[in-house]
Model the fold of this input.
Amino acid sequence: MKLSNYFLPVLKETPADAEIVSHKYMLRAGMISQSSSGIYSWLPLGLKVLKKIENIVREEQDAAGVNEILMPTIQPADIWKESGRYDDYGKEMLRINDRQGREMLYGPTNEEQVTDIFRRAVKSYKELPSHLYHIQWKFRDELRPRFGVMRGREFLMKDAYSFDLDMDSSRTSYNKFFVCYLKTFERLGLKAIPMAADTGPIGGDMSHEFVIISETGESDIYYDKRILELMNVDKNLDYSSDLSEIVVSYQNLYAAADDKYSKDEFSKEVPKEFQSNTKGIEVGHIFNFSSKYSEPMKANVLNSNGKTVPVHMGSYGIGISRLVGAIIESSHDDNGIIWPDAVTPFAIGLINLKIKDPEAVSMCEQIYQTLNKAGIETLYDDKDDSPGAKFSRMDLIGLPKQIIFGKNSVIDKTIEIKDRKTGQTEIINISETISKINNN
Ligand code: ATP
Ligand code: MG
Done:
């Protein structure tokens, strides 16, 4: 992509209403544009990152054998009345009437909708277990939308749902999502700690929030530092194998957010030198709620004895749009964003400092074409701006590698490669560009 043709409305000044670094940088780097409180348009650079995250999440759900579907954003109120949540949900739910006066709502989550799909389609234990997910916009009229996409009112979530015949099999499903989440967050370049979370009246130990450590997080977290050393899931994991050992290895080390934290347990279970208490950002949440929805909504199947029983369910969320902000919170410096390779909008930023020199322009064009042919996503800064403006813009948008075509490039046939994170530079021959980049 050529910058001269790219919609990238970069701001020089920090917007006054942005409190945290990810919100500031997302606005300054022209990733999002606010529509109204907690509601944003995604501009090209932001959308590209959002899609990369979405695709990694999708690939890992698919690898775990979860079926992708797409449920609507607008749901009928009837199913929420059946489950008993229509009144409980309160003001966070955006309620709508259609022209016939029917009550509808903009979905804040999809347990009811997916239970309705399931009960129409599945009647026998032979069809179980069944795992479905979708990636869809949600709306929650949050009391205090803030921090940009981190706590929005409209936000993109991946939500998955499991249906099982009994509690044992439900735990197997839970473990599968648990491990799939570890793998997903690792691929995104994040250390997301699974933390015991509140299960409410249902009880049990099957609710975990996945939280990344960050000063700007809204949760207080307490954990045994040794849990960070566990994080390294086999990339070719066989999901049909017994995953309970992995899950138990995490559960054996203390990690809890504020709602589940107990001072006594923490000090008893964790030796002083391993105790850590910081702030964190919740990026995912998995939950088993047994027959909470299947019972009132009559999502029943026949078991092997011909008896009608309600299915056991779980739900599994990942905040995809929140992750864009969360990744920036965990990877930036004073000059701007530093994208992890897995989600960067472009791999390379090619900066032409000699835009008025036709020979330089033609050489840069050739480098750009060569990178494109090699499948290396490149943003080519072909704009007629000062070197200072070009450097600070490229640092701000955070592409992991910069190629600087400068004073000596035309004569020496060399370019400078800069690593955005370390700031280290290296001068190489233009002919070595591709091999150099592929080897890094
Ligand atoms: P929180 O405790 O942050 O309000 P939640 O517990 O209400 O979140 P869940 O219902 O568990 O959220 O939703 C699953 C995931 O969706 C969360 O882990 C989070 O990453 C994301 N999410 C929830 N609310 C928002 C929001 N208002 N803006 C952006 N992402 C959100
Ligand atoms: Mg939650």
About this structure: The mean pLDDT is 96. The first strand starts at residue 32 and ends at 36. Residues 167-187 form the longest helix (21 residues). The two ends are 22 Å apart (CA to CA).
